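Why run this: before we spend reagent on co-expression, it is cheaper to look at a predicted model of the complex and decide which construct boundaries make sense. The entries below are exactly what would go into the expression plan.
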Amino acid sequence: METNTVQDLIKELQLTISAFARCWRGAELQPNTGQYQNPDFQKISVEAVRQLRWLQKRWEAERFIASFIGSSKVGKSTLLNAIFGQEVTPRRATPMTQVPIEFTHGHDYTATVSYQRSFHRVSKTCANGDELRRVLEQYATEGGDHATTDVKRVEATLPADILANGLVIADTPGFGAGQVGGQEGTHNRALVDYLPNVHQVFWIILPENGMITQTEANFYQTNLQGFCDDIVVTGCDDVTEADKKRYHMWAEEHLGLSLMRFHFLSGKKALHAKLRNDPNGVEQSGISALEQRLKLMGARSTRQPELIHDLILLCDDFGAWVKDRKLSASPWPPVEWKRLLYVAQTIRVEANGTPERMSAVLERCLT
Amino acid sequence: MAQIIMLGTVGCGKTILLTVLAQKYRSVSEDGYFLEAMNAEANAFTNLNWHILTEQHEWPAATPPGALRSFRWQIHFGTNVEKSKLDLVAGDFSGETFQAAFGRNDLSSAEAQELKQYIDQSDALLLLINLKDFINEQDINRKSETEWALKNCLDYAVGQQFRQIAVAFSQIDRYQAIFDECNGDDRAVLNKYLPQIAGAHPNVELLRVSAVNGTTITEGADGLAIERPAENFGSAGIPELLTWVSKTETRDKPLPPPLPSAIGSSLKPPTRQWLKPVIAMIAMVVGLALVIALKSCPGGGGGGGSSVIQQPVVPIPVITKDARLVGTGNFESYGIECWGRVVNKGAAGNVIVHVKFTQGTKESPPYTKAQRLDQGGSFDFYYKDTDTFYQRDGVISYSAWAE
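The model came back. Tokens follow.
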């Protein structure tokens, strides 16, 4: 038997679920009414396939982009500065980020600006992080001397350990309040245009006014659903375990986020501790788990076990949904199902701490 | 005369197999095979479908009924030029043709007669089978009918003393799990999924073929995943298939039966008793059958014989219902096309087909095709207009008539 890869498996899963949906689409049509018995079937199957496509994209990514997204002024830039251990992103005191800034690892501090309507790029080499920050403020924030709506993206390099494994971290325009030049929706548009490029979304929430705002909920439903695995709750100086549990339950109930991972931290505390070179303070800020997650996702070798975990969760959830529908017959078209198990046969994974063949995991999850 | 008939259900992959075969051997291969296109249609068929597969990464549309029959290739193999040339003719017959010819015992149509001639003049039978028709099919009756029809087809070939018969599993890249499940034993697969055929024909040769061995997936219009040909896809089983083809030898064939004496006449038992079971089954399940005829250049045996025909006085050309108008995607880029078949239901004589497209005041350049046809004879026509700029959203009408 040839050795198959997880990429093959993800492809087969998409085909199997698609064949399943098409098969039941026909079987479920009521000739008298023209209605489906389970009208959600198609929608849910499409959603599952979409998430599998998302997993596939992340699996295959050579240049993995982790993007930090959130409403304006929830502390994205502060958090990123904390992650980098230096103040290189435009700060809250200055006008807001209006175009995506991609941070990658480099020995020098540089900034390269790309434009929408020109292939010429502007490159700047900076002496240190402070100078880089000023350059970024000029090109990538509202009111910057060189900021125009024609700026498409700014790429910055800096010597930061967390980026050393090839990870790209993107600071994105905040959605909601801020608009460029009074033009409605410009920040949102820049962000939405950029989203197809990213492989990991960290959604940043500042819980000052309860859970999330209506603006955040709307943006999530429209643009992030199925593509966001991590919620970062900032400003958590005194969040209790009960508060964390409450967050989990609320997110599951209102957003259906069973796959979501939560990170409770204080960006400000983390930044200050790092600038003071205070390891205990860093630990207490809660940022370590987030940094660990970023490191794991950045390198392909460590990212893939994480994605297999997500894949199993997805199959488990989808399988449970199918079982709940109490279908009259086995939903899996035999050819596709056999192919799926065949591909999964040679893939060994660790599920619930036990080494297993992926085919056994899938049979357990989906049947 | 050495001829092979390839039969297969709709979607078993005849068009793609032929495209890949013609493209793979477009130049002389290492194993000495070479498929030389012998007319423009064959060349265009290969180029267009290959472009669709490799550049657009789409599956070519099913070949229009009748179109394949006008294509000609010549196969060269080995070093002995005289003995290593074969003419390859591809043809196809619709399920309706089977139904008319066999289901209703009606051989009055040109297609039915042509099909009958192909079968009678053939030396080998290749049944192309897509296992999906048997494994995924939830309708038990339909599955049984399909198997039964294919079995009868094989029974008939054996009865006609075909010396070379094979069942080819198509699209085998999709069924590796099925073959592994049976320890790689093709006969065990046949026994498991088509037990009637396996039991009745234990010695039938089994082949595996996959014309496009490698797919990728993209998002379909319904949001679900669809499979497309992968970049630089390979193939499997093609050399083995050609080896099998090249072994084809002529057999002693019975003389062709007389054609019906008048339009609309039907066959009467007992002369066509053999057709009944075949008709009943094939008509129901065989949507499109592809015929590849290999005709040896020099020599060769084979039957001949003339038919006793009551000749009408003048040609009566009729365009069959196969004729239709099809837009191929973007009219502005690819034009509009139509195809069909003209059948002479009258006496032998010259038949001319005209086709014209119109949209508002726009009109296509004139198209005509003329050919001498015997009574019951037919030819296919195909016209594609890429010169006229048609509005994609507008109504395009066409007319085709024969004289």
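The radius of gyration of chain B is 22 Å. Residues 256-313, 328-333 of chain B have pLDDT under 50 and may be disordered. Bring this page to Monday's planning discussion.
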